[in-house]
Every structure is written in structure tokens, then in C-alpha cells.
Amino acid sequence: MTALRDILLRRIRATGPITVADYMGECLLHPQHGYYSTRDPLGAAGDFTTAPEISQMFGELLGLCLAQCWLEQGAPAPFVLAELGPGRGTLMADMLRATRKVPGFHAALRLHLIEASPALRARQAETLAAHAPQWHDHLADLPDLPLFLLANEFFDALPVRQFLRAGQGWRERMVGVEGEDLVFGLGPVAPLEMLDHRLADTAEGDLVELCPAAQPIMHELGARIARHGQGAALIVDYGDWRSLGDTLQALRAHRPDPPLAHPGEADLTAHVDFEALAEAAADAGAAHGAMVPQGVLLGLLGIAARAEALARDLTGDARQSHLAAFRRLTHADEMGTLFKALAIHPRGMAPPPGFDPWPEVS
Ligand code: SAH
Asked: What pTM was computed for the model?
């Protein structure tokens, strides 16, 4: 029995079942036993891998996209270049290398990272030492300068609550205890105002998810971009405009694991609802582009030409793995369609390169 499992069993026996969000939050970020608190989970030896770990092209293209946006907005200086949940710092390192020749960009940027995990902060400090990053727990703690931000596979790591449709109300999915096991159960039926908008597109027994932590983050982001009239955010994650069904999943050593089986020892994620992210930023006064599949975005940003240029210098296995990485990032059967991107930008301005505008409400 793991230490965290023991803690959760005792807590639930003492005070009753906990929400899926509480469970996820403890598993990922418990100070002593949380999954992210205690390890670097990325890469072949870890539990999962991400787009920047698959190929340098991902960070290069997103970096140039954000830098182009900065230029088009009049190159504000100084500005905050920030990332939410930078993992090993690979995406940021690739972006910084690719933007070295963008006039004035490096001189103007102040690098700030929002990262909860001490283990990953240490890793980022190694990768990004040359750029003197500063770390924060929350987006709200960033200096009040124009903000250009990246987030890849950050929002999928935020805890979700799950609700099952029951008549005109909802039953929350809870984590309880049976004998020595953690088990899923359902709370009592209750009406829920925050899910009123889902009454029209769900049927009895459907499950919907809410990510309570995402809303304040997106609101803060949108408010900063609106207040300065400058800035942008690129958000990439797996999910859809509005999800339906149970998307909670655990990955351990690159294999699916039952979500309650290894608390604190498996990665836990849920699909991201991009509509909820976009609306929170819009409520705060920012605009957003239309959501775009990752494969389409990378195509529009020129990944084919970049892949070809890199392939020219490669032979044998290195060439094969480079071409496999290109396919993995872009192909519809791999990450190309499941992953989506959303851009937040100031009202009255064009969205960043690769994004179509979304009709603005005046
Ligand atoms: N963006 C990286 C890592 C993705 S994993 C990549 O693409 O490779 C998720 C990252 O978010 C990790 O760095 C994790 O420690 C961080 N994280 C998760 N929850 C967080 C929270 N609530 N606040 C800040 N960082 C968080």
C-alpha cells in the first residue's frame, strides 16, 4: 500500500467520500507524495511524453508564432514571457533558441515560469539557466507587464469534478472506500446552476466534467491582455470545444492504469474543455481565435518546411526518428487531431499566425 493511498483511505473513512477533483489534486500535488511533487515524469523512462519532448519543431514553431505576434503588436518592451507548467523546460528552450534572431525580443523579455513541482522547477533551472527565469505558484503573481504566454499540457493536469445527469439535476461522482479499496460512487441528486448550460445537450445518465481551477487562471490571463491591450497566449492540450463523458485517465510507464489504482504514482489527466477556457478569457475582456487542431496549426506555421530542412542533415536511425516525430505531432491518427490549440489576444487585433478570428461580441 502506498503512503498516499493510506492517507486517502484514512481521510475518507474519517470524513466521508471526496470529489474526483480532490482526489486528483491530492494525487498530483500532495506536498510529500504527489505525483508531480516528487518526480520528473516525462520522457521514455517516465510515464508519458509530450509534444516538446517528441521534437524540437514544436517549441520552435510556437515560439516563432508568439514572437511574430509580439512584433505585430509593436514589440512592447519590457514584456513578460511566461509558461504555465513548463515540465522539463524543453518547449521554452526550443522557443528561446528559435527566436534568438528576432530583433529586440530577447533583450525585452523577462522569463517567468508558473510551476508547482519542486522537482520540475529544479529541472527547469538547469535547462533555462542562461535566461534567469523566475518561478511563481500562480499567474496572478506575475509582474504587471504585457504578457506573452505558452501552455502545453498544463490544463489537462488540473483537477476536474464529474457530474452525472439525473433528471433536471446532477449527481457528483465521488471517491469512497470499500474494505481496503478506493471506489467510485455517486452523491445525491442536486440542481447545479453552473451546469445549467449542459441541460440542453445532455441526456439522462450522461457524465460531464468541470475544471474549477481553469476558470480563474483564464480570467486573470484575459484581464491582463485586455488591460494592456497587448499580449497573447497560446494554449495547446488534448480535448475539445465541449467534452462529454468520463475522460479521467491515468498513465503509468506509458500504459493506461485504472485511475484509483496507484494514487500519487500515475499521471492523472482529463480532457480540456476549450469553450470554458475561451469564455473565461472573453468574460475578462480579451478576444480568442477559433480553436484549431494541433496538426492544422503546425501545418500553417510551416512544420513541413522545417521538417524537411532538419531532415537534410540526418541519415539512418536519426532521420527515421525525426520523420516519425513529424508524423506523431501532425497526423490525424496520432496527436494531430486529438490535440487542439487556442489563442487569446487583445480585442480589435488579429489573432496570432495560424489562428482564424472568432467573431467578437461588441
Ligand atoms: N508543458 C510541459 C509539461 C506538461 S506536464 C510539456 O509539454 O512537456 C504538466 C506540467 O504542469 C508539469 O510541469 C506540472 O508540474 C505542472 N503543473 C501541474 N499542475 C500545476 C499547478 N496547479 N500549478 C502549476 N503547475 C502545475
From this structure: 0.96
